[in-house]
Design goal:
By secondary structure, the protein is mainly α. It has one domain. Helix content is 60%, strand content 4%. It has a two-stranded antiparallel sheet with strand order 1-2. It is elongated, with a radius of gyration of 18 Å.
Length: 115
């Protein structure tokens, strides 16, 4: 995954849940520490919110690192699908480059034969 894709994932996956970086940081500055750390406390007491494992590395938002990465990727592609459908000519640069590459390379992929 490219640096710009990772940055986009970071921008949309920060606490408070899925707000852009600037807004998330502004909100986090006014929240008490015990509120900001509540999801880590949950993880410490009960394990990952998704898989329930306890002996794994913490990621964020109450999820282990592996589940957090899965959720981030699913969120990334969910946003990409809707953004592409709503405004294909006004894609963020990351999505536009991917769409351009797919368009340029599509003739190199053999067509599937239908029976």
């Amino acid at each position: 995954m490219k640096k710009q894709d990772r940055q986009l994932l970071d921008d949309i996956f920060l606490q408070p849940w899925f707000l852009p970086r600037e807004k998330a940081f502004a909100i986090r500055r006014i929240l008490p520490p015990e509120y900001r750390h509540r999801m880590k406390f949950y993880f410490d007491d009960y394990g990952c919110m998704k898989c329930g494992k306890r002996d794994v590395t913490y990621g964020s938002n109450g999820l282990c690192k592996i589940c957090m990465q899965q959720v981030k990727l699913k969120l990334f592609f969910a946003i990409k699908r809707r953004w592409t459908a709503a405004s294909p000519d006004n894609l963020p640069r990351t999505f536009k480059r991917m769409a351009d590459a797919q368009e340029l390379l599509k003739d190199l992929i053999p067509q599937l034969k239908r029976h």
